[in-house]
Amino acid sequence: MDSTIKGRVWIFGDDVDTDVIIPGKYLRTTDMQVFADHAMEGIDPGFSTKVQKGDIIVAGNNFGCGSSREQAPLALKHAGVACVVAKTFARIFFRNAINVGLPLMEVDVTCNEGDMIEVDLASGRVMMNGSIVEGNQLPDFLLEILTDGGLVEHRKVQQKQNK
After folding, report:
1. In 77-154, at which residue ranges do the beta strands (DSSP E only) sit?
2. What's the domain count of the chain?
3. Range of 61's domain?
C-alpha cells in the first residue's frame, strides 16, 4: 500500500458513533455487502449510494465512539472509503480500523465536502487546496499492518517471513 491516499471528501461532525456508522439491526450478518450498503445510514441514509471507491471521510472529534463493534470500520472500508481523517478517534474504533486495514489519521482539517485531498500516512500530512496540515504520523508498525491489509493478513505475512 502506498502511504499516500487521494480522494474526494465527505464531511461529518463530532461524536459520530458506531450506531450511525452501521446501525445495530445489520449486525446479524457477516455479509460485507450488507455492511457497505448501510454504511453511515444512521447519519446519512443515502451515503452508500453516493460514496465512491477511494473517497475520504473528514470528521471532528471522537469519531467512532460508542460500542466496540468491528463492523463499523468494516462497513466504511467495504463501502469504498479509503481513509478516515478526524481531529480525534475513539480508541477502540482507531484500533479496530487498523486491525481491518482501514487507514486513518488524527489531524484537524478544515475543508468542504467534495474537495479533493491527499493524505500521507507516513509523514502525517494532509494536502488540500494548496496547503499542508500536519497531523499525527502513524508509527511504522501500524503502517506495516495497514500495508499488509489488516492485522490478520499482517500476521500471515510475518509467519511466511519466519519460515
Report:
1. 83-86, 104-106, 116-120, 125-128, 131-134
2. 1
3. 4-161
